[in-house]
């Protein structure tokens, strides 16, 4: 992970809307990011912020209707994934870009042995006969650290523990040597000791295979452990996009700061937690200005009227907040003390 | 009225659990097979002091939720005693138990599953009050408004249904319902686990505030150690149906004595990239509670296990003040 090379995946102004009876839900509303080879990009945010929809949009897995990628580009190897035909997309999905989901039990077929399922994925994308594919599946199971892989390959998903199932999912996702791995809450359903094993495994394989990883999670601890850069999402937008160290040492957006302050810490005693007042605006009816304005302790008139741009800072962070604009800093000194 | 500061000095025991066992029979494949049991909770003893928050932590299947359920007799315990107010809850009849349920309340993880979707909030709260006779009918309405305000909801919420609320708000309703019967002990079973961080912080602060205000005692069951550190006075760590360590919070987090506690604490991803913690990676999974390992149940995953650990089951012993551990080698390992 030391040498960061060329960009392999670039998302530009991606918009995914859902057209429902209640109206238009702007789940993802214009986000940009780039993923470099060997890099881990974290996308963090609370429920409904659009982080999972982002990953599903990249792989074109949005159920249409009601969902629709309304605009923007997803550039991968010179192709815009939003526009290519389905047949071409199928060749990329699970092959060059693959994905791990949160709940392995629902993403594995319950009545087919796991080895068989991995072999199927391999045969779909690579020229191999059944026997070779099965052997490769066992190799993959060994790679992800499953003990006695030959035996396990013949077992059904229900015979494996949660941690093991997640390893199978990872084996399947990596079986075609993807260049990009999207991990959507890969450890959320797992216990901490198992989570530690799985995160270690993903990191390990990433260094070995040199792929780019998009890590989607709500857990800032996981972010701190695994990511190079972090995009914090709030209500369909990226509100802060920074190197991981900056997010924790010098968080900028009031939402990021609030989020960090409201975390109970394992290595610190606190009498009271900071709380972000109010709740997220409805995705059907987004305010015209900054989407965090109604909950922001620093909000001014301009925040409610005009949406801020993602502003580049000196330390490499990008933040979508008026407080970091030149007009604001000229008018008043930097503020903000969070407990 | 007792001040919460005093609680560590003068400890009056509110609830005493001794030798509690909870076995669940396993479905047999054939009638010739010997009867098998999941030993979800296997002979545990502890006390809950008045006004404190005792947390139970552990991974899935360690028996933490089952312990809570057994105390309330939501599952009939297989063996053991649960002493509350001079009575052994295990021996009580359903009717006698119902009278005591006003004192012992529970808040569940999923606030949507634990609120009747067809009842308005008024009905939900009213039913609790009527059954426990905690508030007379004519006074109920005012008390409900008071309760809702207490948990940070507007009075208009009374005529609405659970689905009209967000997850955090529903959890507030769950808390209001628990408070409606003036309980002494509230068992919070993963009460904040389903909530987003910012909402979780609100609910945790609320629980703390209410505890001070009403001198409540919490038995807080959670898998999240950061949350436990924030809310508890004492912490109990369970593994495969056994207590492995029980201690004052500070002592447990700063100087854990059991190798499992140590590994558990080191497994947690810390939201600070500058701290590169030395992680103790445990090998393998938790063994099956149907056929738990002999001796120390942790020996299959313990980096320090010896022959003695395989053969002899360690007992929970007090090594430091208010700090007990069940490990043969706790002294040598971490002192």
Concise summary:
With 339 residues, chain A is an alpha/beta fold. Chain A is built from 13 helices and twelve strands.
Structure characteristics:
heterodimer, A: alpha/beta, eight-stranded mixed beta sheet, 13 helices, 23% strand, globular, B: alpha/beta, Rossmann fold, 12 strands, 22% strand, disordered N terminus
Layout of helices and strands, plus pairs?
The complex is a heterodimer of chains A (339) and B (335).
Chain A: E1 7-20, E2 23-36, E3 40-44, H1 51-58, E4 67-76, E5 79-80, H2 86-92, E6 97-100, H3 104-107, H4 114-125, H5 130-143, H6 149-153, H7 162-174, E7 180-184, H8 192-209, E8 212-217, H9 220-226, E9 229-234, E10 237-243, H10 244-249, H11 254-261, H12 301-305, E11 311-312, E12 318-319, H13 326-331
Helix pairs in contact in A: 4-5, 4-7, 5-7, 7-8
Chain B: E1 13-25, E2 37-49, E3 53-57, H1 64-71, E4 79-84, E5 87-88, H2 94-100, E6 104-107, H3 121-132, H4 137-150, H5 167-179, E7 185-189, H6 197-214, E8 217-222, H7 225-231, E9 234-239, E10 242-248, H8 249-254, H9 259-267, H10 307-311, E11 317-320, E12 323-325, H11 330-334
Parallel strand pairs in B: 3-8, 3-9, 6-7, 7-8
Antiparallel strand pairs in B: 1-2, 1-4, 4-5, 9-10, 10-12, 11-12
